[in-house]
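Lecture 7, part B: from sequences to assemblies.

Below are the input chains for today's worked example.
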Amino acid sequence: MHEHALKVDVIGADDRRLLEISEKNLLGLNLTEMKAIRKYFAAMGRNPTDCEIETIAQTWSEHCCHKIFRTDIEYTEKVDGRTRKEEINLLGEIKKVTGKLESDFCVSVFKDNAGIVRFNDKYGIAFKVETHNHPSALEPYGGAGTGTGGVIRDILGAGKGARPILNTDIFCFGMPDAGYEMLPEGVLHPRRIFRGVVSGVRDYGNRMGIPTANGAIIFDEGYQNNCLVFCGTLGIISLRNVDKKVKEGDHIVLVGGRTGRDGIHGATFSSIQLDANVSTNVVQIGNPIVEKKMMDVLLAAVDEGLFNSVTDCGAGGLSSAVGEMGSDIGAVVMLEKVPLKYRKLLPWEIWISESQERMVLSVPGRNLQRLLGLFEEEDVDATVIGQFGKTGKLEIYYRDEKVCELDMEFLHGGVPRRNLKAQFHSFGKDREKEKPSVKISDWRERVLKILASPNITSREAVITQYDHEVQARTILKPLAGMEHRGPSDAVVLKPLYDDYRGIAVGCGINPFYGKRDPYLMAGCCVEEALRNIVSCGADPGEVAILDNFSWGDVSEGENLGTLVRCVKGCRDFALGYRLPFISGKDSLNNFFVDIKTGMITSIPGTLLISAVGIIGDIRRVVSSDLKENGNPLYLCGETRREMGGSQYYAVFGIAGGEVPRPVPAKTLRLMKKLHSCMEKSMIKACHDCSDGGFMVAMAEMATGGGMGAEIFLDMMIAGDTSPETLLFSESQGRFVVEVDMNRRDEFEGIMGGSVSNVGRVTENGMLGVFHGGDRLFSLGIDDAEKAWRSGLKW
Amino acid sequence: MAQIHMIEVFNRKDIPDVFGQDVRKNIGEMGISVVEEVFTSEIYRFQCSSGRDELRRIAENILVDAVIQEYLLDEEMKAGERGEFMVEVFYKSGVTDSVADTVRTAVRDAGIRTKMEVSTGRRYYLRGNLTGKDVETICRKILVNPLIQNYSVIEGKGNHPDA
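Predicted structure of the full complex, as structure tokens:
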């Protein structure tokens, strides 16, 4: 009698057979989980249908329920000679930060599709960053495009619907000049992935009419077999629409695109490793025009208050969306009502398909006709596929046959807790003595080389493909200066047309530090994200952050240990800078198995911190390009010899060194003072020091402004006065600032001993750098600009 | 009775094929320098009972930008006219073809009621002193993603399987 749903015999299966079932069907479930399923159905006295097994697999997949971040881990740590043991819950540690800070800037955290912060007394800002790593490695254009589409839908599904106003994109690729011989079978060339991913994000974002205006690109061999694609979206939402609740009897309405076989097993697949044998189905193809149409109608429906709740159809498709929305009260679904791309889909396929551009609404009966009519007017599919019910069960029918019946409690709460152990030992390399520097004769050449290096060079070739003006909210653009040649630290938007209040969005990412010290990497990423937005005028007291972890193989205790260590860093430094986390995501198991050699390569553990902050008045925004001849230049903050993981060491092949250590209390005080100077309009330009250190920051400011500078390195507040350190050390907590010459006394009065006057802006077209009373080198700004703008070819 | 028809759309001779130039540059970066020119076109396949006039309407009103493009209907380029090798790339069955969906919608909006199946593809004509092996490498490394696409290679003589 079950024509549409097959029974899967788990009750009668032994352990070996249970594992076989999981593997054959790409369920991604381990033995403990399969046994829990067997126990549940044995108690029910029947076997599960394929639909039920698939539903459980999707809901319990790492991608959907983040088992590693939610489990208590037995963690042993050996740092600086001390050993300590503790039980630690990663998600718990992140949430603790927000709990402790009790900031009323945070409106909704860790419970919805996006985190929401307060913008003013009427509106909030929703922000979410997602990864789409595995799909992008397979089909860069489709994977990156659907990654963008997906995170946009997360914003559409935040609260009762936020309006997307900004996209961000952060990528990690292998080296663009890698030799083809080096690539294992099944891996696309990094250049091809780079171009495909950028094109995918560009085409999706541009066609949705959402500006893509902030991001980063990292190039490192470690990402050759597994690229990383982080896509973020920011939206604006009325504070009245933040809370949502599915009500009993609400209709389940599926809107947007049709359903096909795309991306089946996308969620379980992304939790399994990549190798050369992957099926076509797991690739999702996007259609931004459909999503744009859906978005427009959805926002109109939000304005009319037509639905009680909404979520997007992402990983796991309908099974996740309806499963989550109905988790408290249950749902009844009629799968035959789902509009299909083509016929002959099995019920379980319809249920877990990850076809793009779909969202699920919870609509009260009284609004149903109006809602369906609205969607029809705009030629967007909207179909009633069921009802949210009062049984607490998930019941799915296909025609009249019941193909699934699961307790919501088992579905959402039944996943067995894992027993995880992790260990971390500080990496021995830290203790290595730095190799003594080679005698440098030509500083000028060194600076030019580092400016053109892959991780410093201008990303203009990419930035200029993204529309950053659409919606007319962009105040500070990604490229600075009258001719858009220099880099901006962050993007500033003015969300409301009749209000000068603004938001700044920036990010911090540096896996190079992480290879040496995951704890300090966390600190530096947190600070970098904050530094970037403070450089433009954001108030350090009104900032929230998001975390995204992309890690390699975490099945081994030591690899998991580096992740734990990094999370601890996030906790400690976020507390230090008083930054609440409002949302986060993890993508684990980014590793590749070479089928020929059996070798496993994992990516370097990568943390991305995204930050959003408030700008009281966008007329006080400060850009990074140098402005006026004669204005004094100050370096805020202290410079130490912290070259470990630096771009300078990477470019010149020098090993060892100390990874930069942020100093939160001191730096936060400095940032607050700097911010008050900005509010008083005495700062004419500001750029933070990060990759490449002080000299790169200086060259970038000169490029943006088309102005030169005279710089006296000895004036820097520094522990070590060697030119190498002063030019290229990547010590944290530093800003290069151009001050209005008429207000320098005022500036020095406020900043005190935390700044020093290191030079001044000139208009002779040269960067003149002095050390120890002598001219160390001169660099024409045209040469600096040429080098910096030449390193990334499209 | 439904038949298979093909419309091939490409830039006029005096309009630079920017996409083709980009592909040529990529091929060069990969190490194959003998490609002199890459010429590209869009392929639309229709399975329908439409007559020639109706197909012309579809081509001229929907698929072709009359200012810079021209087209061929159920006709092949003269053998070797644009290059010694021709590669045609198309989606595997089951892969979403958004452009094809949009073409179907546009055809309906234009008032044409004939039922039709649409699929899209691309052609790359490669000119240069290439071997068959070179072309295979170019296909695998640049033109095709075997996960979602199939392809066929025709050498200069131009007898296409569908003709």
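Note for the exam: The interface with chain B takes residues 138-139, 142, 180, 188-189, 191-192, 260-262, 278, 280-281, 283, 285-287, 289-290, 341-342, 355 of chain A (CB under 8 Å). Keep this in mind when comparing with the next example.
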